[in-house]
Amino acid sequence: MKVTLVMIFIAIIVFGITATMDNSEAFLNNYGFSGENLIARPYTLVTSIFLHASLAHLLANILAWFFFGYAVEKELGVARMLAIFFLGAIAGDFLSLLFYPSSIVGIGASAGIFALVGAGMLVKPLDLSFYPMIVPVPLIFLGIAYALYNVYEFFFAFDPTISYAGHFGGLIIGLAFGLRHTGMRKGLLTVIIALGIMILIPLLWMIVTRI
Fold it and tell me: Which of 46, 49, 114, 151 would bridge 171 by S-S if both were Cys, CB 3.0 to 4.6 A apart?
């Protein structure tokens, strides 16, 4: 948990610094990730992760980052948590190059967080998150919801300012680590059972409310 908190703290500090800059947009364009920046400044693969465009963007990321990062760090250790996060972020960046022009700059930790989501929902499925609802939700349900929401947004409500493709890249990395840890059979069974429960609960609610 300590390293997860340190990473979140770094993102908060960087946001605070950039928010006070007179030329913050130029700074984000220089240190954010894009195809052009990758060639000119390869280090933007890392610097882009800790940049955020707004307070809402930052808060949405760090809340999910905290719960899933904590679960992965607790179960798999610091080294693997960091590997999952950064490999997921980098995979997300490269996958985004297939869908966005090389001049488009992307910032944020979302792809790395989606990697933690993919791993966390498998390795600690019953750990609870209080985000985005006050009622605690098991990580497996929240992880599936994140994945399904990303699929829906990508195909039916596409927003060019959000790198849904990058999210997929991170999620794939996280799921790969998670399935390796749990075993393919157990991991897939966990997802299938959780998805079945998520479908069954609203159906039962509809039946009960009609009686």
Answer: 114
